[in-house]
Amino acid sequence: MFEKQKAETGLTQEELAALGGWSGQSGASGYLNARIPLNLKAATAFARALGVSVRDISPRLAAKAADFFEAAGGEQTPRRRSQSAVMTALNDWRLRASSRSVAVIDMLTTLAKKNELREEDWQLIEDLAARLHKRS
Predict the structure, then answer these.
(1) CB 109 within 8 Å of CB 101
(2) Within 10 Å of residue 121's Cβ, how many Cβ atoms?
(3) CB–CB of 100/64 below 8 Å?
(4) First and final CA of the chain: distance in angstroms?
(5) Any idea what the Cα angle at residue 35 is, between residues 3 and 1, rounded to 5°?
(6) More confident residue, 75 or 38
(7) Structure pTM?
């Protein structure tokens, strides 16, 4: 992502470090070259500096941030509430499903927990959960 921004705007590691609040180019370089593990604070700084969301930098850390926000008493976003409802529906469906369907539900649950599902995936799952709910 940094390389794309660098090519488009000429952004340097020194400028990225300044935007991210690190003292010098080596701070940004450590994250960019994976010598320093990416954490939520750094991902947030990169996202702000690059004008993208934390999800674009790290879906895993974006999910963790959403969990922190919710645990701190923040409201869930509409999509997050919908995802929670779908996960509940899938878990209920899992109890009545065939072994083949259970394997698919488990795979979807794992991908959801890793925050690796796209918006289109969630829409398909919502549609499927609604259709299955009508059957029961």
Answers:
(1) no
(2) 13
(3) no
(4) 46
(5) 20
(6) 38
(7) 0.50
Q: Which long-range contacts (CB under 8 A, 24 or more apart) does 118-126 make?
A: 119/79, 122/79, 122/82, 122/83, 122/86, 125/86, 125/90, 126/82, 126/86
The rounded distance, in Å, linking the Cα atoms of 45 and 12 is 15
CA distance readout (Å), 100 to 93, 105, 118, 128, 134? 13, 9, 23, 16, 21
8 A C-beta contact, residue 19 and residue 28: no
Please check the confidence at residue 1 and state whether its pLDDT lies above 80: no
Q: Is 114 helix (H, G, I), strand (E, B) or coil?
A: coil
Between 118 and 75, the more confident residue is 118
**Would you state the structure tokens that stand for residue 97, as one six-digit string?**
């499903």
One-letter amino acid identity for 111? L
Tell me how crowded residue 87 is: count the other CB atoms within 10 A of its CB. Answer: 17
